[in-house]
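This section describes the prediction task in plain terms. A model, or a person checking by hand, is given the sequence of a single protein chain and must write out its three-dimensional structure as a string of tokens. No templates, partner chains or ligands are provided. The sample shown here is typical of the held-out split.
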Amino acid sequence: MLFRASQAESKLNRSLGARMDIAQLQFLVAEGEPAQRQALVEMLKRLGAKQVADVPDGHAVLRHLGAGFAPTVNIAILDLALPGMDALELIRRLSELGSRAGIIVAGAQKPDVLFSIETMAHAYGVDLLGAIAKPVGEQRLQSLIANYVVPGTVAAKPAGPVFGFAEVGRGLQAREFDPYFQPKIELETGQVKGLEMFARWTHPELGVLGPAAFMSALEENNRIDFLDWSMIEKTVAACRALHDKGTPISFSINVDRATLAHPQFIAQITACLERHRILADYITFEMTESAVLSADPHFLERLLRLRMMGFGLAIDDYGTGRSNLQLLAAVPFTELKIDRSFVDGASRRRAISTVLKSCLTLAKSLDRRSVAVGVETKQDWDFLQGLGCTYAQGYYIAKPMPVDEFPGWLNDWRQFF
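The expected answer:
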């Protein structure tokens, strides 16, 4: 058993929604052929559904799923070739309406077409529970219904403050910026294998602020290196502090391409490690996928030198750029960090899971470690574990925290394994 007792479950499960018993759900069956429509209604009732409505065309679906229609439909089962408005158009229209219903599409189409429908629905932001071939089987329908999660009632967060360059610069000079750290867990063993750094600004009046408050000012003035070097210095110092307490853990630091490419970077990072008596093996530099999509030989030389010195290199946000696989294979990275958009919900959506599996296969074929970012639920964790992903990090495990909170968190975590 992965976690011991329900204490760990309640502490770690961050799902925004909750699963409901099928008897509590309101279903809508949309099928043009009366006999097939009735067969689906009866199938749902055998599975335990108590509230099932049925309609013969796409226009009726829109009325039922529109705002203000009662009762609210939780799950709609749509025939792909509905009269009046087929399922493809309905998915687009439901996206425009902001519908939060779970959708199941059934059609007499080949698997590749059904898969593409899932991909399209995901791109539209529609909660497609799955696309299945006709005739619809009871067991398969039940498994798709089980994917439904009641949408959370999370209030929209008001936009936070955004500061100009002068104010951000003042905060950096006053050393108000600190690294927070999020644990990276080995999925096979549950052991903590590293910490990723996230920059936070402890504003004297507004408290702790995230990157949205200060990154745009630094980017617009091409001075992200101000923040990078502040975070590098403090992160390496934090690494030394934990090592001195008997926790020889590795750290990952996000750095901008321009910072890495600076002519003095190698000399400065070497001096930093010497000051804090830390080996390069304990530090991994993370850069976005878009930052490495270049055939610039000077930058590739810089990356090679860092690897030869013992530093780790991670490609962050993988899947969001347009990688040239040949170039990607040439970059001497040690970790492939898969973007959260391919992790969250992958256990429930075949289209997302296919991309996720492809990323994991790529990492394995290149003999690199894979890191899934944005693990939010136990379902995400279990699914990634089954796929053989190396590491996981996300709110299901822990939020980023100050370094002085990590030893206590680590003691709590170790109780579960």
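For orientation: Residues 20 and 390 are 32 Å apart (CA to CA).
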